Amino acid sequence: MILIVDDDVAVRTSLGLLLKQAGYPARGVATPEEALQVVQAAPPRLVLMDMNFSLDTSGQDGLALLGQVKRLAPALPVVLITGWGSIALAVEGMKAGAAEFVTKPWHNDSLLQTIRTVLSLHEPEPETDLGTLSRRQLDKQYNFQGIVGQNAQLLHVLRNVGQVAATDASVLIEGESGTGKELIAEAVHQNSQRRRQPFVKVNLGGISASLFESEMFGHRRGAFTDAKTDRVGRFELANGGTIFLDEVGELDVGSQVKLLRVLQDRTYEVLGDSKPRRLDIRVICATNRNLADMVQQGRFREDLFYRINLITVRLPALRERPQDIPLLVQHFVDSLRATYNRPALKVGTRALHWLQEQPLPGNIRELKNLVERAVLVSGKDELGPEDFQAQFQRQPARSTETGELPEPGTVTLDELEAQMIRRTLEHYGGNISRVAKALGLSRGALYRRLEKYAIPFDAE
Ligand SMILES: Nc1ncnc2c1ncn2[C@@H]1O[C@H](COP(=O)(O)OP(=O)(O)OP(=O)(O)O)[C@@H](O)[C@H]1O
Ligand SMILES: [Mg+2]
């Protein structure tokens, strides 16, 4: 049974009807006292609660009730309903243990979607004890093709991904650059009901604030001076499927609120066309920043943070999983062997050990590039440590001799970073792809830094 708490009888009736039609028996109550009685006597599967259910519109009663429900039944999921204007209240509620929030006026479909998602996260399939699945068992149950690794933290990530993929829950993927965030995002989509629908990647770090709306929502011809033709927005392209919002931490505050609105209402308007359109979409975000810190610093909206991180997956850095380095190297060599038709290609044991001891701050991307370069440059069939070492030494940034670094107190990290980027640009004649590779950055991340430090470059 789903418990509806709302003092408005019309709301109770319409929600009750909606839930019953969707196959969820429901019961409505008008006051906190009744709600607590029900929770004690016959705990529901879920509580749907209006935060402003009394004359007191501050929502304090709602928060108090939420607290009491959580004390009585800590595992019972509570979904809050708030007005758009009181979204700060919803954020308070999330901190106090609510599972999700929905803003008024709600759309029936998205409300049901939220309820299904929250229930499936709180009531996982009983027959599988995911906590212990080994890599082999995981591979039997899910499609994790192309994701190499057996490290415990990675397996934890894969179990999580397997479990939440089938729901429509929004997933936030955190991890340093090159740890495989995009690969994991694809795995979520591939293991979901939406796998045959589009998977659309958007690098939010590469979209300027002024173009955000036209990129994401699309525009009609003539909507603004430069709109010479109609443009289909990314949300529309992804409709029915999954949208992957990469580098979400780079979004400026103005665009954050626009994104929040779409994710909240599941409707959007194409620029130059005021007809609102419905969206049916799964959202996956990724970032190499610490969004919780950014929220603390006021640089990322807290309500948006809660909207996108129903599930958070943290990818370990490569240095946290050195056991996986040989497996990864073998994997990359296997594919090079096939690509270049060199059946005798292999990496010696000593080289594998040596690679395991390298810091590799660019993580898996750096390792992959390193293997590729070593194979191509050495031309040998069996690679030894010296072949990889030679590639390391060619990268100027790799020097660890303190004599080559400026004296402490004379330069900030930002200045050092800007200098290094300039030098690498020069070294590679302005070739952005190669500069990004050499610096262990994605192209998007490099572009952002070039803009940040106002370093001139040729766009490719
Ligand atoms: N577990 C893995 N097994 C095999 N290859 C991997 C794995 N993880 C990442 N890779 C490869 O490493 C490269 C970087 O991965 P990916 O682009 O997913 O990283 P990312 O975290 O999105 O990086 P960035 O933050 O720089 O965008 C890709 O070529 C990807 O295929
Ligand atoms: Mg990426």
Can you give a write-up of this model?
The longest helix has 16 residues, at 324-339. Residues 396-402 have low confidence and may be disordered. It contains 20 helices and 16 strands. It starts with a strand and ends in an 8-residue tail after the last helix. The chain has a 5-stranded parallel sheet with strand order 2-1-3-4-5, sandwiched between helices. A 5-stranded parallel sheet has the order 7-10-13-6-14. Strands 8-9 form a two-stranded antiparallel ribbon. The protein has helices at residues 9-21, 32-41, 60-72, 87-95, 108-122, 135-141, 152-165, 181-190, 212-217, 234-238, 253-265, 291-296, 302-308, 324-339, 349-356, 363-378, 385-394, 413-427, 432-439, 443-452, and strands at 2-5, 26-29, 46-50, 78-83, 100-104, 171-174, 199-203, 218-219, 231-232, 242-246, 267-268, 277-278, 282-287, 311-314, 346-347, 382-383. The protein is globular. It folds into 4 domains: 2-122, Response regulator (Rossmann fold), CATH 3.40.50.2300; 148-316, Rossmann fold (3-Layer(aba) Sandwich), CATH 3.40.50; 319-394, Orthogonal Bundle (Helicase, Ruva Protein, domain 3); 408-452, Arc Repressor Mutant, subunit A (Orthogonal Bundle). A hairpin with an 8-residue loop joins strand 11 (267-268) and strand 12 (277-278). The protein has 460 residues and is α/β, with parallel strands linked by helices.
